[in-house]
Amino acid sequence: MAKLVPGAVRLRKQIDQRWPKRDRRSDGWIGDKAHSKRRSDHNPDKNGWVHALDIDENMGKRGVWRNGRNARRLANQLRMYAASDLPGSDRVKYIVYEGRIASGTYRSKWWKWRPGNWGHYQHIHISFTKAAQTDRKIWPLPILATSKKQAKHWKANLERGSSQ
Ligand SMILES: [Zn+2]
Asked: What's the structural domain count of the chain?
């Protein structure tokens, strides 16, 4: 049985709590037939783990367009988190949104947005590392905080790049 890595399940749960009525039509996790013909983190690995999650960019009510500003902030905070020393940051492999990709692949472009032909204008694609198979800790992204105090704390950590 294919299953989404627990780290991704936790992230999606936090996003759903933050925007309970968000549009999920572009959400996804397990690969369809087209995906399975190519290499994709949406395809289950040999143990059934799926290492990718798509989050619809519309955080407003289904059908009510909310301009993607929140999605852009979310994608950006994920990128900053991935580049930080914060616990759990090693769970992110790469992020794609609005034609740009960010990853830890190239030293000179380390977790910077790289423009290109990367597609994904309806959803944010997040690929996860093996660490997300066991690490289900909370994602400390300010936009997902449940209180002002927490948001402030997480924002300071994210900007510092560590919790020290
Ligand atoms: Zn995807």
From this structure: 1
